[in-house]
Amino acid sequence: QQTTATPDWAKETPEHKAQRMAWWRHDRFGMFIHWGLYAVPARHEWVQQHEQLSTEEYKAKYFDLFNPDLYNPKEWAAAAKQAGMKYIVLTARHHEGFSLWDTKASDYKAPNTPAARDLIKPFVEACREAGLKVGFYYSLLDWHHPDFIVDGTHALRNNEEARASNSKRDMNKYRQFMKDQVTELLTNYGKIDLLFYDFSYPGKDGKGHEDWDSEGLLKLTRKLQPDIIVNDRLDLNDTEWGWDYKTPEQFMPNKWPEVNGKQVPWETCQTFSGSWGYYRDENTWKSTNQLIAMLIETVSKGGNLLLNVGPTARGYFDDRAMNRLEGMGQWMKYNSRSIYGCTAAPEEFQKPDNCFLTYNPETKRLYVHVLQWPFKTLYLPGYKGKVKYAQFLHDGSEIKYTSRSSAAAGAHTTVTAGEGDLIVDLPVVKPN
Ligand code: JFZ
Questions:
Q1: 372 and 277 share a domain?
Q2: What's the gap in Å between 353 CA and the centre of ligand 1?
Q3: What's the CA-to-centroid distance between 167 and ligand 1, angstroms?
Q4: Ligand 1: distance of its center to the CA of 267 in Å?
Q5: Is 145 domain-assigned?
Q6: What pLDDT, in 10s, does the model give residues 67-82?
Q7: ipTM of the complex, rounded to two decimals
Q8: Alpha helices in 45-131 (DSSP H)
Q9: Which residues of 258-291 are buried (b: 16+ CB within 10 A; e: fewer)?
Q10: pLDDT at residue 10 greater than cutoff 70
């Protein structure tokens, strides 16, 4: 049902939105989890489309092999928590159309596979127990549903027979199906903190807000969970701000993203290796250092990082993922103060070469993340008179600094720093 009245969210004040977003803005770092039947072939979550498999072929191959005997969401939550992540967003249903929970709206669900149970319930419980916020990813696309009009994203996009069946497909029924499923997800599992709708591709052979009834979906979502945070992929008008945050994907903006000249909440979702679903043979895994730098850079531009894990078909995180999560956790153990509650630094602080700046507006602490260790000296451009004290974050030890006038006194060398610069003395050897 399409709504015509001014939606409630259009009447919301910026203060109300800011309040709703407070935990998310503070926490900065979350885990995305892509898990479904595609974990079985283990070569991309779009495998059904890439290999042009009909629903029957795909189901015949993988549905009865979905047997996550090592699934233990407590381990997932522990791994996320250890890495310093504060929220988890799980694919309740991805484009393949397979539901991880005991939905009444479809038979294509985990309880009917060898998994033989609702996989969402223990997941939500494990997150709650670990003190993590919980979110669901919900696909707007469905390559399985008999009423979903075959389009350019569909596995059967080049199949004439499938295209011909479009005349018998009824998107009204599909829209109702989505609402029924969203109602289940937002009713049966307690408080849900976030919903990640994915995704719109308006235009020829595509789908947008009218196809999904995005307004209706969003209204329903906010009615069932008044404090929920919703992403921006419903193809809703940017100025009306039905969404809570922007979601650049596998992409790092060069600065804090703006809408109509105003900086907006944003979260970049990123992968370890390129694909989202578990991809056994993918050899493009980012290093732990790259991932840490990615987190820092994101926060330095006022954003959040949602870092994805694709669990295996048996339900656990593989070694490559665990290594990286553990490495990030080691870093976070000593440096999370420069992430939680932090944002971009005020403009008066220019970032030094090879550094990113994060800033905590409450404590007025500026964090200088030195990505490339310099030789003994770090120049802070124009910082003179703005700094009270400097220390390393990892061990709390004092760092000495000076400004040009005192450094120049008695120096035999030419001091190249500017008048307003601070000259920071660093140890030759980079601390761990
Ligand atoms: C979508 C999915 O197709 C993908 O499998 C994964 O779940 C990811 C998080 O989201 O992929 C997208 C969606 C939107 C864009 C790019 C990839 N986009 O707008 O550029």
A1: no
A2: 33
A3: 28
A4: 13
A5: yes
A6: 999 999 999 999 999 9
A7: 0.98
A8: 47-50, 55-62, 73-83, 120-129
A9: eeeeeebbbbbbbbbbebbbbbeebeebbebeeb
A10: no
